[in-house]
Amino acid sequence: MKRFIVWGVLGTLAAGSAGAQQTEAPPRERLTREPKRSEATSAEHPGQASSGLLLLAQGQSGAPPGHPPGAQRQPEAAPPERITLEQALSLLEARSPWAAAERSRIDVAAADRVEAGLLPNPSFSYGTQLLAAGVNTGSSVVHELSLEQPLLVFGQRGVRRELAERNVSAEQARVKASLAERALAVREAFAALLTNQEELRVLEETAVDLGRVEKVVKGRAAAGDSSRYDVERIEVESRALEVEVLNARASVADASGRLAALLGIEGWRPRAQGSLRITESLPDLPLLWESAQQRRPSLVAARARQAVARGGLDVARRERLPVPSVAAGVMLTRNEKSTIALVGVGLPLPLFDRNQGAIARASAELRAEARALEAELAEARAELTRAHAVLEGRKGALARLEHDVVERLPTVRRMAEDAYREGRGNILELLDAFRSLKDMRVLHLKQQETVKLAEASVLFAAGLDTAE
């Protein structure tokens, strides 16, 4: 009876210690004594001991059953809700899955370095000579074993490694050009989002102002100073403006989703923070062209492809040189039990195949890449000239709009409201003034957007939107 009581107490203590170990770390003395009790418990109650050990392991690891400790990953920090253009471009570099996939292609090209640095494998040969008929002049059975190693003595490995490095540089240039095109798309999407946000703000401000005027019109109608038509007309105008506000909000959501899609971030609705005004003073067209020739990613990639073609021609010319080989081996005779050492040198004779096909192909590819570079230069210069002319035209139109129209908007608005209050104007003239003010403010935003897009095109054409 005492024995059963002792075992019950020990089982209770074991269960209690296992539960405590799930919440806090046990003392070292207690851990040293635990194996003795667990051994005794496993002898009498194997199921209870195994469950206690399972609980102990789960308590120490902190992981729930069925989930290994290393299975939990820290979630990536969410991007900020309001971002600037610089932050959007940084997200493209750091978090875009598309950018990561493009950069992974560089590793594929870098794998050619391994192949370019390899030595040719040696070859092992074995032969035997058996006396079939006639007089035995030596031994009736001869075994021959030899090992042959080709030697790249004319620098084939060096030109292959150089070609592999040029391939990596060309792939890096291609990825950079691809990222520059995506960065241009991000700039355009950011400008569209900022424009839609500003347009929504203008419409909401206009709705507030129109609501204030609506109260004035209803007050005058209640006092008998205006007709019921004025009330109905301004209410219809207010409801129509509310529809415009709803459409503007949908446009903001659409532009926000497009920017998030370009950056590859799911479930994110960014808000653009910045100004539509031009913040950079660009140099003249000749200086822009000098910059484009050195920094435009598409031109850098074209030169890298030309360097690869030149390296391919060097490899083809070097591959036409023969590859000598050295051989060493032994010849074993069976009857006389003799051993003969063999040493030899082999050299292919380039009488017919001197790698003419590969050289012709590499030469044609080099000429094609040279023409492609010339075409890329011509297109780049034409594109830069066009973008620069468009930017100057857009800037001139914006300056004209701001000087001749935007500066007069507050005065026109004040005159229309004063005329209606004093009875010198009707409701139609007042509403026409409100619509004109709203349309001019929206037109100003659209013109600023076109200037911003033209500026982005010039930066892209001149290669000024990429880091050194």
From TrEMBL:
Belongs to the outer membrane factor (OMF) (TC 1.B.17) family. The lineage of its organism: Bacteria, Pseudomonadati, Myxococcota, Myxococcia, Myxococcales. Gene3D superfamilies: Outer membrane efflux proteins (OEP) (1.20.1600.10). Residues 47-63 have a biased composition (Low complexity). Keywords: Coiled coil, Signal. Residues 16-78 are annotated as: Disordered. Residues 26-39 have a biased composition (Basic and acidic residues). It comes from Corallococcus macrosporus DSM 14697. This is Transporter.
